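[audit] Reproducing an earlier prediction to check determinism. Same input, same settings, fresh worker. If the C-alpha cells differ from the archived copy the diff job will pick it up downstream; this log only records the rerun itself.
[audit] input (268 residues):
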Amino acid sequence: MSPTPTAPPYGTALADGIGPLNTALGRLSAGSTPDAIDGDLAQAEDAAADAAAGLRLAVAPDAVADTHRQLRTALERLAVDLGAVRSGLDAHRLCAPSSALAETAAAQGLKDTAAALSALASAGYPATLTVPQAGPVQNRALENGAFVRKGRADGHGELTVDNGGGGDAVLTLVRGSDTAYSFYVVKGRTAKVTGIRDGAYDVYFTGGSDWDAGTKRFTRDCSFTKFDDGLDFATTSRTYSTWKLSLRPVVGGNASTTNVPADTFPAP
C-alpha cells in the first residue's frame, strides 16, 4: 500500500502558489511592446489560474480559512481580469503597454488578491506579490490643428478635415514612402492646413483617445485607416488645389476607406 501524501505546511503551499504569479507580474512593464506585454499578461493569467487551482488543495488553518477562501476567489477573478486586458489589446481598446498596465494595476482581482495576502501575512503567512506600478488612466490630447509633423509649408495647397468621428484623430499625408504632413483634429472640430506642396499624397488617419506624443500613438480605442484614393495637389498661375475630407460617413460621399494593420501604418 502506497503511503498517503502529506500536504505541505500552509505557508509553503501559499508561497509555492503565489511565487510564479509574483514572477509573472514583475515582468510587466510600460516600456515593453504590445506583443511583449500580451505574452507577459498571458503568463500572469495562467499563473493566477494555477495558483487558485493549487490552493484548493492546500489545507488552511482554521484561523485563516475564510481569508484562504477569499484569496482563491480573488485569484480566480484576477485570471479573468488579466484575460480581459489581453482581449482589450487584441480588440484595440487598449493600444499601448502603458494603457494595458494601467488597467492591470486597477483590476479588482489584483486589489482583492493583495488584500487577502496582506491579511494572511498579518496572521503569520507571508507571500510576496508584485503589484505593477502604473500611472493613472490619462486623456492626453493636442490642440486642434496642431502639427504632429510639420512639413515644408511653402506650397499653395489647402486641406480641411472635419472630424465627425467617435474620437480625436491624426490625419497624415504620405508622399512616396515619407510622411510629409501630419496634424491633430479634435473630435467634433474642423482643422485646416495650408501651404501644402504640390504632389500626389496617400492619406491616412488614426483615431482614438489619449494621444502619447512620445510614441505618436493613441493609447486607447485606436483605429488605423487609409483613404482608398489619394489627393493630388497642383498649382497653376491661376489656381491651386483645395481639398476637404470628412472623417465620418457622409450621405453622397465618395471617399471610401480601408482599415490597415497597426504595424503597417506610417509613423505620423
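[audit] rerun output stored. Observation attached for the diff report: Confidence is low (pLDDT under 50) at residues 249-253.
[audit] end
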